[in-house]
Automatic annotation (TrEMBL):
GO cellular component: nucleolus
UniProt biased composition (Acidic residues): 472-514
Protein name per the record: CP-type G domain-containing protein
Alphabetical list of SUPFAM superfamilies matching this protein: P-loop containing nucleoside triphosphate hydrolases (SSF52540)
Compartments (UniProt record): Nucleus
Residue segments, region Disordered: 1-117, 465-561
Residue spans of biased composition, Polar residues class: 100-112, 551-561
Compositional bias annotation for Basic residues: 1-35, 518-530
GO MF term list: GTP binding
Basic and acidic residues bias (residue ranges): 66-83
Organism listed in the record: Steccherinum ochraceum
Length: 561
């Protein structure tokens, strides 16, 4: 028998390769089916084989493991004993107290807490506008954002305070969101005009949640600048026995209430939250005051709503889209990423930002300075925001940028136009010693430098009442009742006339229906009834609609002949 030659090539037809793939798939399917029917459990995790017997240090390792198990068991037993010892006989007797005794104890503890906490909010009817607050205040604190203080200043308000010969203090809030070099430069720049104080609000009084894993970072002690601010306010008081009136003013959502809560040491004033549905332009709807004693000095703290800008005399750029975009960015209230036209807002932001910092922060390729379309195109390509036709979705890219700004995850800072080099004396400040440097910010999470803004020169409404003051329920009901009587009378009179006209036509229609119903089939009669019931639907009445004419109902319902 001749010897069969060994196959020297792996070449084959596509039909043969297809048959091999099919057989492999069938084999895998059969094995999978049999594995499902097999009752024996097979774990996917491999079992630890343990220490090999030929390992020279096996006895030592086993001894260490047994010692660890013994220590763990002892710790578990000690914890159990401590829990049992914590329940003393006195506690068991307290559990057997009657309900009246427990109620009396709760009431006594509640009165003790109320006696200790004398700080309660109050509404003063005399402080119905901003001018009354400025007249009643001894010291006016203008809260600024430390990242861009110039954009949050109001030249009109500062002039009004100077005209009344009141002391003005510039408070730089949110210093923990910008590098220490920027805060030093701005404090030195602003101190040449008015006293400037760096401040950091406590995290427990902000909108964020308190972390249970790291309570030190979110405790009320994690605030800086309170002692320095109180020391500066004490110097403004002539005598220690006199109550010092302190008014806190500023742009909406700059952190005025958080500053006051940090000074008081509790959540006394309402704080803005992004999740809350609030219709007003500011969280604080009217002036709120609180009296307390701090370090032997009586204070009367007055919280005010955000500035209400006057619309009279606005011209040029202030009335344009750029001024509106700056207001949206500075207030940062609500979901600004859901704006109908977010492009102008991003245009203002990109025109002020440093090009290299934007490239490094967003990890995008280079683009020309001020070219918003190129910047948004790069953002859209990075996040995969491409339309069906292949073009970049620039509006969606704008929403991505504004979402970071709205969530305060867009780190930015500004520097004065002419920063002074003589700021070494400020490094020993207790607040500045806790801040991060610019180099640390650039490592994580990044830092974007913006051009400094200018102080707002628009007029502030001083005499106008607070815009967010809501009407009481009685006033609203009174207005609704007085305004709706006339309309109701018109509707009633119109309805009476229509009913009189309809009665005559309905009587004629009923007579015709009685005659025709005797001759018609029952099924046809049912069909007619259903059609007539659907056709006689009454029109929806509107309170502000004019009453219909008298002849309209008669002409629409003519008797059948």
């Amino acid at each position: 028998m001749p010897r069969i030659r060994k196959k020297t090539s792996n070449r084959g037809t596509s039909h043969h390769r297809g048959k091999i793939r099919q057989k492999v798939a069938e084999t895998k399917r059969k094995r999978k089916k049999e594995a499902k029917k097999n009752p024996q459990w097979k774990s996917k995790h491999r079992k630890d084989p343990g220490i090999p017997n030929d390992f020279p240090y096996k006895d030592q390792i086993l001894a260490e493991l047994s010692e660890q198990r013994r220590q763990q068991s002892e710790q578990k037993a000690s914890k159990k004993e401590n829990r049992q010892a914590a329940v003393s006989p006195e506690d068991t007797e307290a559990e057997e107290l009657s309900l009246p005794t427990v109620t009396a104890a709760a009431n006594s503890s509640r009165t003790e807490v109320q006696a200790k906490d004398d700080t309660t909010l109050a509404t003063n009817s005399t402080l119905d506008h901003l001018r009354a607050v400025l007249d009643a205040a001894d010291v006016v604190i203008e809260v600024l954002d430390a990242r861009d203080p110039s954009s949050y200043r109001s030249a009109f308000l500062e002039a009004a305070v100077k005209e009344r010969k009141k002391k003005l203090v510039l408070l730089l809030n949110k210093v923990d969101l910008c590098p220490v070099e920027s805060v030093q430069a701005w404090i030195h720049e602003l101190s040449q005009e008015h006293p400037a104080v760096p401040f950091r609000s406590a995290s427990i009084y902000t909108t964020g949640k308190v972390s249970s894993q790291n309570p030190d970072s979110n405790s009320s002690d994690a605030s800086d600048g309170v002692r320095e601010l109180l020391a500066m306010l004490k110097t403004s008081s002539s005598t220690a026995t006199r109550t010092l009136n302190v008014a806190v003013v500023g742009v909406a959502n700059v952190g005025k209430s958080c500053v006051l809560n940090t000074i008081v040491g509790k959540r006394a004033f309402p704080v803005y939250s992004l999740a809350a549905s609030e219709s007003g332009p500011t969280t604080t709807s009217h002036a709120l005051e609180l009296s307390l004693e701090l370090d032997g000095q009586q204070f009367r703290l007055i919280d005010t709503p955000g500035f209400a800008w006057s619309t009279e005399g606005s011209r040029g750029e202030e009335a344009g889209d750029s001024r509106r975009a700056l207001d949206i960015l500075s207030r940062n209230r609500g979901r600004i990423d859901r704006l109908k036209d977010p492009v102008p807002v991003v245009d203002v932001l990109v025109s002020r930002a440093n090009r290299e910092d934007l490239m490094l922060y967003h990890n995008i390729p280079a683009f020309m300075h001020g070219d918003v379309n190129a910047f948004l195109t790069a953002i859209a390509r990075k996040h995969g925001l491409i339309r069906k036709e292949g073009s970049s979705d620039l509006v969606a890219a704008c929403r991505v940028v504004l979402r970071d700004w709205n969530a305060c995850t867009f780190p930015f800072h500004t520097m004065p136009e002419h920063p002074s080099r003589s700021v070494q004396s400020l490094q020993a400040h207790p607040v500045l010693s806790t801040l991060r440097t610019r180099k640390e910010w650039r490592k994580s999470p990044g830092l974007v430098k913006l051009q400094p803004g200018v102080a707002d020169t628009r007029a502030v409404e001083l005499i106008a009442p607070w815009q967010c003051e809501k009407q009481s329920d009685e006033d609203a009901e009174a207005e609704d009742g007085s305004g709706g009587d006339d309309a109701d009378d018109d509707e009633v009179s119109g309805d009476d006339e229509m009913e009189d006209d309809d009665e005559e036509s309905d009587q004629l229609e009923e007579d015709d229906d009685v005659v025709t119903s005797r001759r018609m089939h029952p099924l046809a009669q049912k069909r007619k009834r259903s059609n007539s019931s659907t056709g006689k639907q009454t029109a929806k009445k509107v309170s502000f609609a004019a009453p219909p004419p008298k002849n309209s109902s008669v002409s629409s319902k003519r008797p059948r002949r």
